[in-house]
Amino acid sequence: MLTVVRCAGADRWSAEEPVARPALVLVRHGRFVRRVNGQACLADVTTGYVQRPGEVQQVAHPAGGDVCTAIGLPEEIADQFQAHPVRVTSTVDLLHRRLRAAPERDELIAELVGALLPVPGLPHPLVEEVRELLHADPALDLAALAAAVGWSPWHLSRSFRLATGDTLRAYRRRLRVRAALDAIDDGGELAAVAVRTGFADQAHMTRAIAAETGMPPGALRRSLLRRTF
Questions:
Q1: What is the pTM for the complete model shown?
Q2: Which of 126, 127, 214, 217 is the most exposed place for a label (fewest CB within 10 A)?
Q3: Burial class (CB in 10 A: 0-12, 13-18, 19+), 54
Q4: Distance of alpha carbon 148 from its chain centroid, rounded?
């Protein structure tokens, strides 16, 4: 689904190359010119593009080589991209950078593609259904959630953020943090709480709680013990 493409580059047009499969192409480093059907466009870190089967492309590198990320897309998703080129916002750029060493790569890819898609206008009740599914089982991954409501992962990722203000990963983390805080409030041992609430380990839980609340679990526990209600 994701391929890193490195080109040494030459300051002349390459041979014509038929596009075999749809893909979103984002530039990691460098720049190049892509020509399709006689129209040439610059691709750089601020502008990517979607290639589609049936196109015949050529590329030239007037300033040296480049490194790109190619993300395979289903045809129905590729067809939703109308603009050439694709504008890479700061949000998309950050997601692209995080993809380079991400254990949650599939969800990051879905967030990235979803951030580039037009607003899908999907019905709100299905977002509520996804929220219910996450409350029942925060471990459900993006593919399972999308299949449960009959959406593509990209549509789900985009629509969930529009409806809730959170990415699916952030929402899942918030649910786990809330569950962990309840267990800590009840006096649970921190390492055991981390395992029970779905964190990799106590350190992982500590980072998540501190990011969410501004306080590590130990300080929160002391604060909670002092409450008067």
A1: 0.67
A2: 214
A3: exposed
A4: 19
